[in-house]
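Support request, please re-run this one:
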Amino acid sequence: MSTGLIILLIVIAVLVVVAAAALTLRARGPRHGANLKRRFGPEYDRAVARHDGDAKAAERELAERVERHGDLRERTLEPAERERYEARWTAAQERFVDSPGDALAEADRLLAELAGAKGFPDGGHYEEQLAALSVHHAHHVEGYRRVHRVAQARAGGAHDGGAGTEEMREAMVEARALFDELIRSSAHDRGRHRAAADGGHRSPAGRGHHATSVFHRHQAKES
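Re-run finished. Output below.
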């Protein structure tokens, strides 16, 4: 076999490998994007909007979040810890009636502390904590973002962060969804609390939902 023929065969083999790799990457691209969109839900759309519609840039950002925080394992709270957090959230909800801005500020602090206790980055690093939360609780981080925005604006001297009472109420309700996700313990504990509730005892989670209904009833009276 001549040298020229050998070179030609090598070139053809390289071209075949390159073409196969390109086809593989092209096939993986949409699936990768679809997986991210399914995992992040509304956070995916928010990332795309922040990148001015550039889905690829948004997907790179979200993929980096998964790379940094995807292996995080949430710590299970002890029952006493959980009850303390639930009592504080209930107090914040009750405070909302008279002082919505203060209630949101407390909700912001509470979510930061709770996330840190669960094993997420410390609340002093809000952006990193929020990024980690978005990987594991993507459908519920917007409430935290909203209450944090109001709390920061108030800290800067703006009255109630420029938000109206209804807007703050919606933020509080959204934030409650993340709180409930974080406060949830192991499946074993959830089963134990459900059994206690069936026996006529209200579990800590039940008290929290009762407080939420009270929160809504107060708001209905206000309107």
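The radius of gyration is 24 Å. Residues 79-222 form one domain.
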